[in-house]
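Chain X:
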Amino acid sequence: MTDIAEIEELVATVQHSQQNELAEEFIDLFRSDAIWTTAHGKRLNGRDEIASFTRQVLPGAAKEATATYEVAHVLFIRPDVAAVKIRQRPVRPDGTLILDQNEGSPLYVLSKEDGAWKIAAGQNTIVL
């Protein structure tokens, strides 16, 4: 599998874990020392803090709305480090687009750890 395909698979797992409210699946995508900033600007340092926050907010989060995640651009900084721009579109649980909500534009910094891509840093931004 190519690096691009592996990165697309990681992003598909982000979508799957969010849409199905699978906190542990989401948490497993991060390095232990990862930095994550939510769309509302809350900074989380380390997988433990990310896990605690995720376990609180993810259950019930997809009841009325969730999102699709699409790889928009990949910049390989080094062969084992990539900056990945995401197009995040709000959808209802049945998959229909929510046109009156803003898209998100996350940026993930991924690093290859023991042969697998992991999220080292992420910044989610709402597109105004």
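Chain Y:
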Amino acid sequence: MTVTVSGTTVTVRDHGPGFPERLLREGPQRFLTGAPERGQGTGLGLTIALGQAQVIGARVTLANPAPGGASATVALPPA
């Protein structure tokens, strides 16, 4: 996992299988997990992060950058 900070933007990136396409299209859904044995979705973590970002005026972007893996970027509002 790599964490990059540039000004008011923080990006967390891994090199695993990436986010499911459904999550990128529809966003995270509460109480659902991405583990096949536990259902579909992402659980509460991303849902809480997106909700808190909205409260403070931040933007969260989820992606599957090439050549693989997942990234979550939080762009904080200007002070």
